[in-house]
Amino acid sequence: KRTPGVLFQCSRERSIGIMAKKKKKEKNVKLTEEERLLQMEQQSMRADEMRKRREEMMRQLLRDRLKTEADNCHLNNLKIVNQWRTIMREAKASELKNDLEILAQSFERDVDRKDAIVASLSRDLKEAEEQYQIALHSHLENMDQLMDMQRSQIRKIESEFEQELTDLRCEFDREREVMMRQHSEEKDTLLDVMYAMEQEFNDQEAEAKQEFHSLRDEVKNKNLEEKHALRIQLEGTVEELWRQFQNALNNYNASTEERKQQFETLKVKDQQSAKTIEQQMRKLQRLQDSVTHVKTKMANNVRDCDERNVALREEKDGIVAHFQELKSQMNRFREGEARRLTALTLASSEAERALRRLLDQAEKLIKLAEMNRKLETEEEKVTPFYESSVSAGEEHAAMAAAGIEPPTTSKLAQPNVPHSSAFSDDGVPVREHHALDQFWKRYNKVLLDKLALDKEKGALVEENETLRMVLKQYLDGISVSEQVINESNPLFVVNGRTNVRFAPPVGDPRTLAPTAVEALHVVNSQRMIDRN
Description:
Layout: H1 4-26, H2 33-255, H3 257-375, H4 378-382, H5 392-401, H6 409-412, H7 437-478, H8 482-486, E1 493-494, E2 497-498, H9 519-531
Antiparallel strand pairs: 1-2
Helix pairs in contact: 2-3
């Protein structure tokens, strides 16, 4: 498609070419060699100009196509982003609804636990208040006794202070009278000394002034006499030098008068010759400058035309190569975007399936947690997490013995140490593999209870088997048969011995203290084994 401006430019160039051909036909006069060269140069310049215009038109057409393609890409990107935004909003809304339901259930459980904690704390507060009242009463009695002792001590100290103050005042008055008397005596002595020194100073000052005036008059008279004699001598010397200078000037003017006139005449001729030479030099310089300028202009024109032609050819080749490269890049980009879109679709489908599996698993866990919540005891509701029987020092010592560096707060604060977004009760960040410690506590507690029950069940089964065997032996002892005689029989006694092997007495495992193993210790031991 051609724009109206391009069509107008093509028609104008076509009309210019037709007019040039008509002018050529009208010229019947034979051209000289210079005119023919000039005409060929003009034709080549017109051809170059037409080629430049066509190349400019092609560049403008390519720019328009690139701009249209960029606008289409921008519009498609906006449409894709808008569709994805709608899909993500719907997914986020459903996720937030599920989170709200889970949070509501968790909040109800926390409220129940907090109510139980508040009730226990209120009981503790009442007991503490009673203890506080008893301690306050005893404290007030002790304070009254201490205040009585303090008042008696203060009265005693005040009486001692008054006595010492009276003694100090008497002693101060006596010392003050002695010091005033000494001060008056020393003051009179100093006044007498000052008067004597002032009289002596006045006598010395009068003598010094008299001696200074006499010396000043003598020096002044001597300077005046020397100044008068020097003036008379200098005036005679100046008159003699002036007379010699006038005689020398008259002699010089008489001897150089003729040479002075010749110099003036030659000076006028020299000025006229210098003006003529300067005019001729200016003319030569102007002619030489014009010739140099014309030569330079011709060389510049030839060089510019050659350079312009070469640059235009290189620009054309570069534009064509750039167009081909952009076209190939655009094709590769489209193929890559299509592959990415396919991969993104497959990944989103896989992610959706994985999230659905996780959601089903979470719902199953929540249902199991609700069922377990109903079976929890009051103590488990108030304190769901038991306190560890292993101290921090023992845990660090065990980790150090296993060659594991124990975690510290300063190391967790470093940016290169990985940690989760969970925090302990002290506000310290928790390491990623310690974030589920509370969960593992409850899980291990349940696991240990299950193991204890399994162990108790095994003990009961073993006890039942033992009782059955004893009962069978008893029944076999009552009845007499060949099988009974051949087997172990408690009633068959030979030389005071029986062939029955009695089992040792079995104690009730429920009456024995169960062996308690810390779940955290089991988890840490398993981690150390895995790491080693």
